[in-house]
Amino acid sequence: MDIPYKGYTIIPNSERQPDGRWLPGAELEVSYRGVVTSKPPLRATSREIRATRTDADAAAVKMAKAWIDAGEREGPTTRASTPATNDKDRSITVDPLPKVPIGSDVASPRISQKTRAHDATADAATGVRGADHRRRPTPFGKLDWAGLYQAIGLDSDEQVDRLTRVLVVHFLLDRLVTVVLATKLASSSESNEAPDIENTLSDIAPLAIATRVDLASILGVVAPGVAESIVEVNRLRNRLVHFKPTRGKPGWDVSDADEIASQDACDKCLRKGIEAVQRLMSALRVKAKEK
Fold first, then answer.
1. Distance, CA of 129 to CA of 120 (rounded, Å)
2. CB-CB contact of 42 with 9 (8 Å)
3. Which element (helix H / strand E) includes 115?
4. CA–CA separation, 36 and 211 (whole Å)
5. Percent of the chain with pLDDT over 70
6. 116: which residues sit within 8 A by CB, 6+ positions away?
7. Ramachandran class of 135: left when φ > 0, alpha when ψ lies in -120 to 50, beta otherwise
8. 111-140: per-residue pLDDT in tens?
9. Which of 7, 39, 193, 251 is packed most tightly, with the most Cβ within 10 A?
10. DSSP state of 29
11. 194-213: buried (b, 16+ CB within 10 Å) or exposed (e) per residue?
């Protein structure tokens, strides 16, 4: 529940700890000349941990109110002022005075600011306003998709297009090799009944694509060159989706992959993939004419 207080909006946002207890925390928004801006989040120390979220949020509200009151006493140019640009890169840990309950009206808390590295990439990737999930999630309809692409190293429309093409070609190959294999297996059945393609598809679809390609090769429905191309595109897709970046780069960055960075490298692989798609589709058309 958002709580208005002296021009601020207090948003309790306590954090669950590994032991199941809750650390009091709160977001602060302030309206200044009609513009609503976010203050750095407030966090209690581990000494103020609570057994339940309700208790932690209640403590967080008291803490936030004490912080606002302290700002008023120190003057409008300190805590209560409009945040500077780099304020969003900070979080504030509120340490209570010894033997004084958190947020007590008896004395204002001592406040120390600890600068935290702000990872804008992580913000975009997770769709939240704080890199460590301390802020409310951004509604799906308001996500910054351009920022999301940049978060994984896709800094241009060309790079987005390359990744999209890789996924589309893999999508086609995955399905086509499954259909070709299922058609062969179903038609090879010794039953006098009509081939049951759907049941066969259900049986082999869960298999890894490499396994399906091997089976199709053994049965002679996929030529060796086509099989190699499918495996190559599958490796590329896996390398991009499960990418391991160079040291010092975020774990979701794919910009160092040759096929993303270079149009030539991307085209070289996809050309083989498209040729494999065409060969598989031709095989299906031939099979259809035989019926």
1. 9
2. no
3. strand 110-115
4. 56
5. 70
6. 89, 90, 91, 131, 132
7. beta
8. 333 323 334 444 444 444 444 445 567 788
9. 39
10. E
11. ebeeeebbeebeeeebeebb
Selection from 112, 121, 114 nearest residue 146 by Cα: 121
Residues 201-255: tens digit of each pLDDT: 888 888 899 999 999 999 999 999 999 999 999 999 988 887 665 666 666 677 7
pLDDT-derived band at 5, boundaries 50, 70, 90: confident
CA–CA separation, 190 and 193 (whole Å): 9
Collapsing DSSP states into helix, strand and coil, what is residue 129? coil
Tracing tokens 């694509």 back to the chain, one arrives at 209
Q: Write the CB contacts of 210 (distance below 8 Å, at least 6 apart in sequence).
A: 231, 234
Of 90, 95, 87, 88, the residue nearest 111 (C-alpha):
95
- Single-letter residue type at 50: R
User: pLDDT per residue over 268-286, tens digit each?
Assistant: 999 999 999 999 999 888 8
